[in-house]
C-alpha cells in the first residue's frame, strides 16, 4: 500500500521501521478507502511519521500516546522542531493527521480507549469556561471558539501536563505569553488574544480563584478602530476575483455563489456557512439570515446575480445530500456542511488565482467592499447597518471615510499665503 503513495523504497522502508509503522500502514489504507486525495494521504503519513520519530527520541512507548501527549507535541515540539525531516510550520495538517492516527491506534487496541475518552484537566476547565461564555455572557459561537482557543493555548503553555493552579499565575506569565504570540501577527489578532486572556481571568476572579487586579496585568494592545480606512476591492479587482472561479466545475459554481454572497449581501463567513435551503424564499426573493454575532436575525433581498449563482450551483454543482445546508463540501467528507474556515479558504484560493495581494486572507475584505459600494451608491448609514446586521450605527460610521463624493462636497479649499 505504501508504494502507491511513496515511490522510493527507502522512504517506504523508513516508514515501516518507524515505531508507529504498523499504525501508519493501517492509516494509509484507511484514508485511501475513505477517498482522501493522494497528496493528502502523503502529508498525513509524513505527519504521523514525524510524531513517531519524536516518540522514539524521548523513549516513549506507543501505548503511552494520549490526546494530551499529542497536544504537547503540537504545542511545544512542532513550532521549534529541528528533527531531520520537519513537516512544515502549519499545525493544521499535523493536527488532522494525528487525529486519524489516534483513531487507528484505538481500533488496533494499542491504545486504551478510556485514555482517549477521559478528558484532561485543561479540557474540563475549558468546557466549564465555554459554558460560562454561552449561558452567562451570551456570546456568539465564533467568539466563544476564539476565546476558548487562546485561553487553552495559554494554559497549556503555562502548565503543560501539570495540574492547573490559578494561584501560581503571575503578571509576567501574561506579558511573556503575549509577547511570544505577537510575533508576526497583526495588531487585531494580538488584541483578540489579550481580550481572551482578560475574559478568562474575569471568570477566574468571579469564582474567587484569582485577585481581580491580575486582570490588569494583561498588556494593552494599541489598535484604534477608526485609525485606518476600511480596505475594499476596486471594480477591476472584483472582476478579477469573480473571473478566478472555474464555473465549469461544481466547486467553482459553489465558490462563485459564496463570493457573491459576500460582495452583494455583505455577509460574515459564519453567516454564509450557516445558510440553509429553508432560509431562501424563492417567491419573495429573500434570504433569512439567522442570529449570529450581533444576535439579530434579518431578512435580505437576494440580488439578481447572487440568485442566479445560487440557482446554478443547486442545479449543476451541489451533490446529492441529506443536509439542508446550502453550501456543502465536495471532498471528503462529501455532502457535509461547510464550516466558516472552509468558506474563508475558498476565498483565499480565489484571491491567489485572481492575482490579488498575497496578504489578503480574510473575508471581511469582501464585506467591506459591499458596504463601500452601498454608501457610494447613496445608501444611508441606517440602511447599511440593517444589511450588515450591526447592533449600533456607530460601527457603520467608519464607512463615511470612504464616501469620496460626499467628502469632496465638504472639503475646504487649501489656504494660500500671499508673499
For the largest beta-sheet, the strand count, sense and barrel status come to: 3 strands, antiparallel
Q: Predict the CATH topology of the largest domain.
A: hpI Integrase, Chain A
Helix content: 55-70%
Shape: globular
**Low-pLDDT residue intervals, each spanning 5 or more residues:** none
Mean pLDDT: 85
| Percentage of β-strand residues | under 5%
Q: DSSP helix count?
A: 20
Q: Total domains, how many?
A: 3
Strand order of the largest sheet: 1-2-3
* DSSP strand tally: 3
Roughly how many Å apart are the termini?
Answer: 87 Å
CATH class of the largest domain: Mainly Alpha
Write up what this structure looks like:
The chain is mostly helical. The protein has three domains: 2-117; 127-217, DNA polymerase, domain 1 (Orthogonal Bundle); 235-407, Intergrase catalytic core (hpI Integrase, Chain A, Orthogonal Bundle), CATH 1.10.443.10. It has 20 helices and three strands. The protein has helices spanning 2-5, 9-17, 21-34, 38-57, 67-77, 92-107, 113-117, 121-135, 141-159, 171-181, 187-206, 235-243, 250-265, 269-274, 304-316, 340-353, 364-376, 381-388, 393-396, 404-410; strands at 280-281, 286-289, 298-301. Strands 1-2-3 form a three-stranded antiparallel beta sheet, with no helix packed on it. β2 and β3 form a beta hairpin. α9 (141-159) crosses α11 (187-206) and α13 (250-265) packs antiparallel against α15. It is globular, with a radius of gyration of 25 Å.
